[in-house]
Amino acid sequence: MDFGMPFLLENNSLEECAALCQRLRLSFVELNANFPACQNLRADMLRKLAGQYGLYFTLHLEEESDPFAFNGRVRDAWLRTVHDAIVLAKDAGIPLINMHLPKGVYITLPDRRVFLYNSYAGEYRRALLEFRQMIESEIGDSVLRLCVENTGGFAPHEQDALELLLELPVFGLTLDIGHSHGAGNVDIPFYEKHMDRLMHMHGHDALGKKNHLALGDGEIDLPGRFAWAAKSGARVVLETKTIAALETSVSRLPEILARMGEKV
């Protein structure tokens, strides 16, 4: 199992982040496209940092990305953004791109919330198929995979969309164990059904809906969840929000792994 760290707000540069990753003896850094420091990246720079600090990178797309938007200009902009990420990843040796599955706009009626992607299923499906075809074509036969992460529980139309994407081997799943815990683990049956497609994990602890805690500061069955990662061969991002919490997580990791029968 490879453990890594996210790009953190306290990191002023990619090199500073890479140095921290090396100091903590982690394997990779998950770049986050929402941060200015993770914009306009060059493959040669990432390869240099990877070699210098003995690590590799994964990439998290912008959290607000929506390549299925009904507005064609908006959709095209996001498709170009994903295209650029794939080109960078292939050139820089990045093995995985992570993205959230956008729920889309919803309308609040007196008795329920209605998602437009569900109401206009035909338009949504056409956008999904366009996206799927593009990803398959651009990833090709490389080792790169695009993984979809859970956030607040997959709505039925999102599960249908994921089934469509997972028909192709270029797609995989990311399990954020804190997001799952906060949503009452409603997505766990879906992940159990597709355990062979679990390639990535965001590992942090949680108390109720409060997540991104240091490992051991919450109530998640961490040995159990990390055993899933070990079984499926998924890498794990120790997704805290501060350096101090990350350091605490790393210090507690050997005990957690020992409880699941793994060795550091």
Query: What average pLDDT do the residues reach?
Result: 96
The strands making up the biggest β-sheet line up spatially as 1-2-3-4-7-8-9-12
Low-confidence runs of at least 5 consecutive residues: none
Describe the largest sheet: 8 strands, parallel, barrel
Q: What's the overall geometry?
A: globular
* Assembly status: single chain
Total strands: the figure is 12
Please give the count of helices: 10
The level of helicity is 40-55%
State the distance separating the first and last CA atoms. 9 Å
The fraction of residues in strands falls at 15-25%
* Helix-strand topology string: EHEHEHEEEHHEHEHHEEEHEH
Structural class: alpha/beta
Roughly how many Å is the radius of gyration?
18 Å
Annotation keywords:
single chain, 264 residues, alpha/beta, 10 helices, 12 strands, 44% helix
Strand-helix topology:
Blueprint: E1 3-6, H1 14-23, E2 28-32, H2 43-53, E3 56-60, H3 72-92, E4 96-100, E5 106-108, E6 113-115, H4 116-119, H5 121-139, E7 145-149, H6 156-165, E8 171-176, H7 177-182, H8 188-193, E9 198-203, E10 205-207, E11 210-213, H9 222-232, E12 235-238, H10 243-259
Parallel strand pairs: 1-2, 1-12, 2-3, 3-4, 4-7, 7-8, 8-9, 9-12
Antiparallel strand pairs: 5-6, 10-11
Offer a quick outline of the entry.
By secondary structure, the chain is of the alpha/beta class. The chain has ten helices and twelve strands. An eight-stranded parallel beta barrel has the order 1-2-3-4-7-8-9-12, surrounded by five helices. Strands 5-6 form a two-stranded antiparallel sheet. It has a two-stranded antiparallel sheet with strand order 10-11.
